[in-house]
Amino acid sequence: MLFFFNISIAQEQKKSVNINELPATFEEEAEEIDIYDTSLEKEDLEKKSTLSKKNGKVMVVLKALDKITAKTSIIKMGIEKKKVFGELEIKVLKCVLSSKEDPPDTIAYLQIKDLSEKNKDQVFIFNGWTFASTPTLKSVDHPVYDVWLVGCENV
Questions:
Q1: Could you tell me which Pfam families the record lists for this protein (predicted)?
Q2: How many angstroms separate the CA atoms of 84 and 118, rounded?
Q3: Which partner for 61 in 51, 66, 112, 150 could form a disulfide, CB atoms 3.0-4.6 Å apart?
């Protein structure tokens, strides 16, 4: 009986843990202003588009997720350039902003191959248009990786 009494006293003396003060168990990305936020007004998008045209090269910004490690990566690439993410080879053929009559959005044409398959007659696992505002409308179907469009710079 005395043993149980000592355990209950020891438990009462433990200090409470404030959940808000605990460090994150994952890697947090630095908070950035989202210049690709689809809730921005058209005038704001046009201003940002004109300001970013200084170097003239269109850069496509993609986000990729490795579902096994739960790590996300930002991928910046030029039009007609190929980049490898894990076992995927990604190529962007076109990136445009939606017309002024439509809600503001960024649209890109992607081609993605799975390099883990050694077939010479390999087809793309994704070949089509994707939208930054609704990445699930037409998504990449792969068991290990997810890739979605964030936006385009210098369009």
A1: DUF2155
A2: 15
A3: 150
Q: Helix, strand, or coil here: 86? A: coil
Nearest-angstrom CA–CA distance, 83 and 78 = 9
Which residue from 131, 127, 137, 136 is spatially nearest to 149, judged by alpha carbons?
131
For the whole prediction, is pTM greater than 0.90?
no
- pLDDT-based confidence at residue 138 (cuts at 50, 70, 90): confident
Sheet strands (E) in the chain: 59-66, 71-78, 82-85, 88-97, 106-114, 126-131, 145-153
125 touches 31 (CB < 8 A): no
Q: Roughly how many angstroms between the first and final C-alpha of the chain, as a whole number? A: 76
